[in-house]
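#struct-help
A.M.: can someone run this one for me? Single chain, 393 residues.
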Amino acid sequence: MKEISLKYGCNPNQKPASIYMEDGSELPVTVLNGKPGYINFLDALNGWQLVRELKAATDMPAAASFKHVSPAGAAIGRPLNDVLRKVYRVDDGLKELSPLANAYARARGADRMSSFGDFIALSDVCDRDTAMLIKREVSDGVIAPGYDDEALEILKEKKKGNYNIISIDTSYVPEMIEIKQVFGVTFEQGRNEIPINKDLLDEIVTKNTELPEPVKEDMIVAMITLKYTQSNSVCFVKDGQAIGIGAGQQSRIHCTRLAGNKADNWYLRQNPKVLDLPFRDDVARAEVDNAIDLYISEYDDDILADGAWERVFTCKPERFTAEEKSEWLKQNSDVILGSDAFFPFGDNIERAAKSGVKYVVQPGGSIRDDNVIETCDRFGMVMCFTGIRLFHH
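D.P.: on it. Structure tokens below:
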């Protein structure tokens, strides 16, 4: 197709709306089912770029969960242990998952609250395992280079047959100059095509210089995720997946706090107290996620008060005390912190240390780089300067 008409733009009052190629050529996407909207396509095309680059950089299947033009989660297809299978809600009788399904489970499971109603991007042809995981979640749609026959039929059953399914031509190469309009003014720039690979990690500026190969791969996951996250942005990564993304904040310390809090929640959800919460059988998946989010937060009274807990639990759980949470979080370690631009102050590093960060990757270039390096040295961290800023708007 050369043009796809859309119901409306970002908001219902923004009409008409469509997507098309400015040169009149065929679109690189095909709608196989549903009727994707304006924001759906923004999420789909940003998500596709992210997973395509992750696959190229790591040679592993990749997945992303997008909401409002930033990833809520992104991951490569490393196998899941039993704890993460339970945390990500994929432990209920499913066989060993395919690498692509593992990537999707990680991308969706890292921040289930933010991923509710997401748009999914997959680097590889969607298989049955991945489709079965997608089928059970609340989602707006998916983009992939293709779909197995069985996977396509499974996905077409979602949302009463209206689930958005998009395929993309993997041979499509965009023009090197990208153009957009704001307030009737045309903006033009070269695409951000700089390759993100291990060569960017050669400048280690801390006293600790030990950088294992798996950590380098995780740093690449962080940088590619940041490349397609609305700036300012910070990303916490562990074991091949983003575990906390702080997007679109005006202050970098607020990015770090937001991403760090999400990373903390990711780890708190692995505590036995949370894993053993006595949920009623009739509680929906989204309600379980909401209850867990409240239980591990400072607002736990909202779910533990008499008259509240009975709606989701078979018996009243013990409170997860602040002291217990603090002790549990101390066990998290070897986390990677990535930033799309330099850290202006060492306070970002101090906050990151509270969430188990040991490795940092950032562009460098601040007049206070010495202070940031000194703070890393105080915590025994390893920090790389890439010299590459990754702003995305």
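A.M.: thanks! The chain has 14 helices and 15 strands.
D.P.: also worth noting: The chain has a mean pLDDT of 96.
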